[in-house]
Amino acid sequence: MDKPIRLAVLGSTGSIGRQTLDVVREHPERLKVVALAARSNAALLEAQVREFAPEVACLSSQPHWKMPDSRTRCWGDNAALTELATYPSVDIVVAATSGSDGFRPLLAAIGARKAIALANKEALVMAGALVRRAADQAGVQLRPVDSEHSALWQCLQGEPPDAVSTLILTASGGPFREWSREQLDTATPAQALRHPVWAMGNKITIDSATLMNKGLEVIEAHWLFGVPYDHIEVTIHPQGAVHSLVQFRDGSMKAQLGTPDMRTPIRYALSWPDRWPSALPPLDVQHPGAFNFYPPDVDRFPCLGFAQWAGREGGTYPTALCAADEVAVAAFLAGRLSWSGLSRVVQSVLDRHHNVADPALDDVLEADRDSRRVAADLVEQLTLEKVH
Ligand code: NDP
Ligand code: MG
What we know:
Distance between the termini: 68 Å
Shape: globular
Structural class: alpha/beta
Number of domains: 3
Low-confidence stretches: none
Helix content: 40-55%
Mean pLDDT: 95
Strand order of the largest sheet: 4-3-2-1-5-6-7
Radius of gyration: 20 Å
Number of helices: 16
Bound molecules: NADPH dihydro-nicotinamide-adenine-dinucleotide phosphate, magnesium ion
Strand content: 5-15%
């Protein structure tokens, strides 16, 4: 047996992080945890440190965090995330923090020539060209963890790039798939958090309800696979069994199917090009009876359209989109913004954004900062309107 693959799991206490550790538990002879990082969930991180005995761990929101009875080196600040992402003995960095905090560690991991298992789509979307260029220059592989992109990756293997006609991303449609515009106006955070297919972190669950998640995934697919936006489509597939499809120029289509369980794409990102066994029951293709596919409704779910537009425009528009969405989702979850306010904030930030084509790192960071400020001001205004 080869030496185990050594992992840094950034975001180990989250939904993807916990499921990554499940895969390590399944394959302890193949995988070894070297580094773990979370933001504030000390109790769970400490339990993980006790179980996996990593060399280093980081709780980024608590500068004085320590585990005196452990041999693990403990760090407590955001900069430590970058230390972990570049830690010398790590082979694969599982990028599974949420939101844009993962951007700098991702760039650093690429610079240190680590293979990346990428869950944190925001880090790629906010600076796609920069990340792509850095990965290409360093010869680093970005292995998708997102289930749709894992499916596309699997369908594309062994295929010449010019044979690809269209990437078709599937979307479950979220909990509000059949809601009317009037019903949507009354949508609450609790209702939006009830995803019909996947149990995920809060930010991505709200993004799935607005279809922003699918928009981010279109941009993610563009940068992962180098396919132009005109050749990336979205289809609603409520059963969640077909994880995505590729259409080729000879008219053939390939799809990847499976039981909806994130441990499958996580495992594949770690085992590639091998496939390791799983104890999960395979998809029962008889069970759903029929597979349905139909086009998304961009009128009821405008965030999908905003993201597709921002991706095509390029430059710092996707940065502004990500920043606005992060602020708006946090405000919605805190009860400070209505459902319709969410998309209004995103749209207004994009309307006001001064785009920088072909941005450098500083342009991206500035666009992120400015867009967050504009989004926070808009949330404030909309909250005041609600009160008066
Ligand atoms: P969660 O909210 O469940 O988890 C986020 C994790 O990141 C937590 O461990 C959190 O720590 C940690 N974290 C956040 N910010 C920091 C920081 N500054 N420093 C250190 N740790 C940090 O999110 P998910 O697991 O659902 O999603 C993670 C990423 O994967 C997202 O980008 C999402 O879009 C993507 N993704 C998720 C899928 C899913 O099924 N969940 C599917 C496809 C993609 P703490 O717990 O301490 O706050
Ligand atoms: Mg996905």
